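This part of the workshop introduces the protein records we will be handling. The question running through the whole workshop is how a given chain folds. To make this concrete, we reproduce a full record directly below:
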Amino acid sequence: MGHLWVWTERSTWNPVGGIGDVYTSDIARQLNDPAVVNHPFTGIPEPFRAGYVVETAGPTSKLEVPADAIRWNADGQRWQPVGAGVEAVSKVTFDYAKYFQAPWHHGPQIGMADVLYAIQQGFDISYNLDKARIETVLATTSRPLLQTIKGYRIVDETTIEAYVDFWHFEPNLIAAYATPSSVSTPWELLYAMDELVFSQRRAAYSDTAAARFGVPWLSLVLDRDARLVRRVVQELQSRQGFPENIFTVPIGGEMTALVSAEAALARYDALLRWFDVHGHLVIGNGPYYLQRYDQRAQFAELRAFRDPDYPFTAADFYRGLPHLIAFGETTAQPLVAGEPFAATVQVTGPGELGVRYLLTDPATGQVVAQGDAEPDGAGAFTVSLTGDETSELDEPLYRLILAAYSDQLAQMAERTIDLESDLFGLFDAPAEPAAVAESEVEAGEAVTEAAEAAEAVTAEGEGEEAEEEAEPAGAAAEATVAPTPAQALRINESVVAAPAAQAGSTALYVGIAVVIVLAAGAFFFMRRRT
């Protein structure tokens, strides 16, 4: 999997209170298909192995929950109808057909009993007082979510409705929240682990319970722990025990048994055979299965699951390459205190684009202004500040941070522009907005080049050869530099420059300007030091 380690002291393989470190979870993801998956480009949930339909009355209204919807009654150890008068914000109908058409890795067909046991297990750990005293952390952390679940209703062999008090403007996030179960573990394995943890008290799901009671933190890849579970399965097999109360549910107004004693015994047989072959009890439903695991050798072997009824091919997992957001040409006016300011940037990318901006003082990190750039409908966005917003600017340097985003991508693009402000209004405002220059010359070096070019024009004004040498220098200054460093705009390593000073400026005026700017810089430097 590309990791240095396969196992550490924190690598614990149990689906209830384990699989929490990167070395374990990165392998485990290959072994099970999630019901709902986040799109790799947008990050928005979408159906994967379970289809769904979302209905919601939120955020202000509620839907009526059918009276025959059920919740697990931990005190009575049975499914109980919610009755009349129960309401929920949202309803999600899940179709598990893609799960149920294929088997688990160890052979038995996946079914609604696997979904129901996982639901019951979560409620029972949280609301069964005896279990909650043992796995206190799991119980207390799960209870806030479970309190928002108003009920489930089994529609048919593959469909179940979930009623929840949850709303989001993105319906797919409601579905992700309401997912009854991702069906990651066969019910008989969950049942055997529950017996081991809660009835026999010989292992624990969580590290906190393991430490408190002095029992192993259950890990199904370790031979010692897997054999403990195996022994429980053998005991269940010998007495033909299975949780019949969990699998007796109302469907279509009639109580229906989802699992028979014969089906339970067949599952136990398959589980024991899996352990005999593989030496562990990690069983999933995904595109790969865990063939062999050796924590001492830091070795895990995964093999492709090639059952003909598995619903996906390799092509179904490929999404191509994302079309990313990119910044284009940027233009900006000089930043002058008390005067309006505008900067325009071109942005390309998929979907509906937007740009947020922050104007900050880089010395302190203080945010001076923020907001949304205005789109023009053709890919250009303009940041506009009024004279009132710029009137309080009293620092020589500010930083404009642009963040472009899309409704079809989960990532943003960022551009940073350094703005040197004209505090004293010494120079004429440019007639046109500045353009992005491709030069990487720093502002201080650019000012020196401008002064030297102007002096060369004055000193050699009578010679054609001198004029020929000065003109390229003047042209370079005009293309890359503002008349003062106060008007230079740096984008990352590029320089955005204001237009050159109007024609007719002499070396004397340029020299005086440079002296004034340097004096102003020294003034603000000393002020900051004090």
